Amino acid sequence: MRALxxxxxxxxxxxxxxxxPISSPGLLAGLLLVxxxxxxxxxxxxxxxxxxxxxxxxxxxxxxxxxxxxELAGRAAERAERAWRSLSESFVSPPPGRIDVVLTDxxxxxxxxxxxxxxxxxxxxxxxxxxxxxxAWFDDWLELVITHEVAHVFHLDRAGTLGVAVRALFGRxxxxxxxxPGRSVPTxxxxxxxxxxxxxxxxxxxxxxxxxxMILRTSILDGTFERIDQASGSSPVWPGGSRAYIYGSLFxxxxxxxxxxxxxxxxxxxxxxxxxxxRLNSAARSxxxxxxxxxxxxxxxxxxxxxxxxxxxxAALAPLTRPERLTRDxxxxxxxxxxxxxxxxxxxxxxxxxxxxxxxxxxxxxDGRSLARTNGAASFSWAPDGSxxxxxxxxxxxxxxxxxxxxxxPDGRSERLTSGARLVGPSVHPDGRTALAxxxxxxxxxxxxxxxxxxxxxxxxxxxxxxxxxxxxxSPDGRRFAASRWRPGARRELVVMDRDGTSHAVTADRALDxxxxxSPDGRRILWSSDRTGIPNxxxxxxxxxxxxxxTIRQITNVTxxxxxxxxxxxxxxxxxxxxxxxxxxxxxxPYDPGAWFAPFDTDFRFLEGGERAAATYATRVDAVSTPxxxxxxxxxxxxxxxxxxxxxxxxxxxxxHRFGAEIEGEDLVGRHAYSAWGAxxxxxxxxxxxxxxxxxxxxxxxxxxxxxxxxxxGGAMLAPNEQDTLFLRVRERSVSGSASFVRQRAxxxxxLSVSARHxxxxxxxxxxxxxxxxxxxxxxxRKVGEGAVTVTFGNARLRPLSISAEDGVSLSxxxxxxxxxxxxxxxxxxxxxxxxxxxxxxxARLFRSWPGPGFANHVIGxxxxxxxxxxx
Length: 872
Description:
The protein is α+β, with helices and mostly antiparallel strands. Strands 31-34-35-36-37-38-39-40-41-42-43 form an 11-stranded antiparallel beta sheet. Strand 13 and strand 14 form a beta hairpin. Helix 2 packs across helix 3 (141-156). The two termini are 53 Å apart.
């Protein structure tokens, strides 16, 4: 999973970023890299290194967590051991050694990822994904994400004979085939396997839910179902990064239903054992008896027949809903809400070519305009005065990302209402003084009431591990509210609750009953539910005195999906988010209770199941936690050979070829990181090396230091006899240190780095045989001190369909001062005798985009660089 915007759990590898060049690849390294097909570096997890971390240990896992997450860590440990046992029985044999799991509550996003380098490590963000379309159907969100990531580790750690041999020699090198051959397959294969097991080992999960099914059904009906080569690629075209999970999980479900679940292990082993990599169809034929290309075409034909029959069946039950479409090419258009005056409809739009925004249009879809730019995904509510109360994320520091409330005035001005309150899903009370919201924290959430003048937050309940809320909505009279409540066993109930705490359940099944909204007279609640297998709109009458719900009726009969209903103040229209093959659009239908009908039969998957999860939800490992110790995870897990090419002048090897090795490491939470290499020239006794160490435990600044010894050619000169040529070999030793500060924000980032370096230079003279010459320089040794300050700033956008950075600037300015120490007075300021200087350099990049023909914006970019210096 990644930071912004929220998305499903994923797997990626990362390692410590080197603080400078290490070596030049040469012949030996080049020959080795023919076999070690390296994957691109994807960065390391930005965990808060200054937090107080603790660890508990089980037989197969180490769980490292923030102080305060003890209860969640105990539950995570139990889920991890359960996933380990289940996957060992139903998938492949487990990898050796303990697996590290890091629980972090640093961000109000739902995410998780796994790494195999430098060791098997899993990171999980402790936020239940109750408001995520694809992830919301779970028996236990912690079980779902842990099972998914442990499945990644089981899969991606597996290697064949060649990979085992390479690992035995070099360790856990970062790469794909042969060291980690599981990474050499398309992403839909990697994510499809993990998503399949997250569902197969529970009674819920994405492969069993309706969201993935909805994506495939609409693509089949619209003729946009992707070929296997399209699904294998990485494309921002809808459905973007979700395609790997959607197509992969349901394709594997199709294959395993037809050929047997034991074939998955055969496929993974077939890929791991390939001596010639990237032959996906060969591995498929070995495991399933059919190529993936052929099986994909058969699967598509089967889906065409199935969904055509489903649509025919739906039309026989009730007329298909034919809404009026109000937006075009919105891609993501959610949370439609009619203004209190009834003359406009606001909604969240993310169309991949412009900024995420709250957009307002006329009730018929005309005259659309952007009200305010938002920080990624957002939710909002109208206030009686025509302003909008918005929940969006913002960085508190480089490590922590919290969601808070903001007020957007009708003219688009923004005012922050809370800070660090971790609030989502606001619903403004009819009196305009307070708002209901959901407050995140500790792996669960709770309902709160927020004073919109002071920002004070009043809890309406405790943080309970077995109770998650979403989508609260005040009734028009402010006497009660509706909300969606999750309980163990995937009981996603729609409840009506009075201010005194009295509650009534509208639904009681395992379907996703979400996004409640009230009719203008307060006598009905409308919401979205996938209880029939397709997300549709439903309604129920509510007794105005007691709040008790009546009989449920179905409003829509769509073939895509209907979400986020909203009724205009006049009670004429229902606006909603409608899912189509290319994303969500805002549509409307008449508000006509007389046309509503008895709900279709509830889908079988929502009638039973979840009993096991409900019975085991509170189980946990009761282990004593100990303070986090980073040293074990800092041990190097691999070494790489390096070759540093020599330097020759006029046939003389001034600096010979050097051979050596490099290592690097980082601890689990990113508090410590290091890299080191050493190289030696056989027969000459010449050696060189470099070490770098960084410490982020202070949070701010990040401190780093380094020590180096390197050799280079200093050129050639005539000997005093004016006949022989002498060659200069420069040995340079240095010690350096730096402090880096970062100001991270959702829309910009600024950085300040202060560094210093002390350099010792020894210059030797060589003859044509590369032996020490019988001469010496007047000043063979020099000392240089250097200091630098670098300032950076950037606010350019990079949208899903961008061809480059857009609409912003990228600035960098560096000032550097160097002084040669111990210069004789007669050489001070003399060219060639004094290496002191001052300089300032800077680069500016400006980007401006505009719409035009084609899938993306067109961009003009301007780059300018300038510098000034003085000194001899």
